[in-house]
Amino acid sequence: MFFLKHIFRLREKWQIQRDDEEKPFLEHLDDLRTMLLRMVFCLVGSMLLCAGVASNLMDILRRPVNQVWDMFEESHLPAGIDLDSWGKAKETATAAVGLDAGQRRILFREVSPRLAELTEAALVLRGAQALPDDRKEIFIREASPAPAVRELAEALHAKDAVLTDGTGRGALKMMSAFQPGEAFMLTIKLSLYAGVVISFPLLLYFLLQFIIPGLLEHERKLLYKCMAIGFGLFLAGTLFCYFVVLPRVLTFFYTYSLEFGISNEWRIGYYLSFATQMILMFGLAFELPVVVMPFVKLGVLTYDMMKATRRYAIVAIAILAAIITPTPDIATMMLMAVPMYALYEICIILAWLHERKEAARAREEVARFEEDFNNDNSPYNS
């Protein structure tokens, strides 16, 4: 309510400046209701649009975690063995476990020779897992049916290849929903987050239209430019998080868990909440110039003030990054704080350029006034 009163007071000042009249409190509430209804309808429409492509959105959000798991498996594979071939070999080895010798020969005959050798190597390595460390290499040498299989098995063993099915690509797809409506609620939540992203320009427009009513034509054009810049910054923040921050954060937590012997079987609901919240938070954090520059235009913030309070701004940005990041680790906080501080420095430069522009305009007006004054007082005008 305290914040709402300040918003109404700002609208009153703007309204009085334009119309020389003050609107009653109930009319402000009616405008607020209209704004909220517009935002709700816009958001619902965006959600319905995104719900139609929810499966594609799910694939997009799964991409970072699949990349992390793929990267981990690839780091444990020797040169010459790609991830897809090793994954197929493990699947074939799982299918071959329950077959007798004749059926296994038929199975290996139906696949490529390279896949058959990789499958044999996977079977040998899985057998060696049950033995002590000092007996594993002996078992690999003696149990390998051919020299080529032995070489593959020894190379995979030296790299500590991942042998369990589902620990890499596709593990997230195999996760189960623990409640009947969990998959449906995940779709609703994912559609909501995606709807906020695609409808952000309109939501921002409705909000600014409420805060600053009665815009003139040139002011409306300026507002459209601010919306475009704001949406560009928001999109830049989400893309920065998706392609840079999220894979690094997931890699950190994945490897950190493995160091403590904890398997990474992340529940899909928790993962999607974590990923979408982080992406949205980065998008909002990149809106810093859109928040700061209007105060510079109004004269509330100046270049000297922002430059003098730079140290306080660094502390405030660090605290804000620690609060809004969904994880408490320093690395994630720094990945958010550093771009925010860079944007703050850009705001300082923009404030300096704005003051130079205003000073140049003031000098031109003074020069024009002096010229007019001298012309009026010229003896030729007497």
Question: What is this entry, summarized?
Answer:
The protein has 16 helices and no strands. It has 382 residues and is an all-alpha fold.
Overall 3D shape:
elongated
Spell the H/E element sequence: HHHHHHHHHHHHHHHH
Number of helices: 16
**Low-confidence regions:** none
**Straight-line distance between termini:** 64 Å
Oligomer, anyone? single chain
Q: Tell me the radius of gyration.
A: 31 Å
Strand content: under 5%
Mean pLDDT: 79
Give helix % range: over 70%
Q: Structural class of the helices, strands and pairings?
A: mainly alpha
Name a few traits of the molecule:
single chain; 382 residues; mainly alpha; 16 helices
Describe this structure in words.
- The protein is mostly helical and 382 residues long.
- It has helices at 2-19, 25-51, 54-75, 83-96, 101-110, 113-128, 133-143, 147-158, 182-198, 200-211, 217-259, 268-285, 288-297, 303-308, 310-324, 330-376.
- 78% of the residues lie in helices and 0% in strands.
- α2 packs antiparallel against α10, α6 packs antiparallel against α7 and α10 packs across α11 (217-259).
- The N and C termini lie far apart (64 Å).
List the helices and strands and how they pair.
Elements (H helix, E strand, L loop, with lengths): L1 H18 L5 H27 L2 H22 L7 H14 L4 H10 L2 H16 L4 H11 L3 H12 L23 H17 L1 H12 L5 H43 L8 H18 L2 H10 L5 H6 L1 H15 L5 H47 L6
Helix pairs in contact: 2-9, 2-10, 3-9, 3-11, 4-6, 6-7, 6-8, 7-8, 9-12, 10-11, 11-12, 13-16, 15-16
